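Work through this:
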Amino acid sequence: MTGMKKRPAEGNASKTPQLEEYTAAQAEKMATYWLRWVSTRGDKGPLVEPKHGEGSWSEPVSATIPG
């Protein structure tokens, strides 16, 4: 995935669906998410070989922001 800007982790999702809001200026851009499970004690899991840095992250999921 070229041209991606690194952003810090934002927010916690404790319920589904998780809804995100975008501005009109962001229309037609690609949004990519990585998720991971964290317990209320701060445990990160499940414990598998990390693919994207510290902890266990999902594969990326991407979608084009509608305009």
In short: Residues 52 and 58 are 8 Å apart (CA to CA). The radius of gyration is 14 Å. The mean pLDDT is 75. Residues 28-64 form one domain.
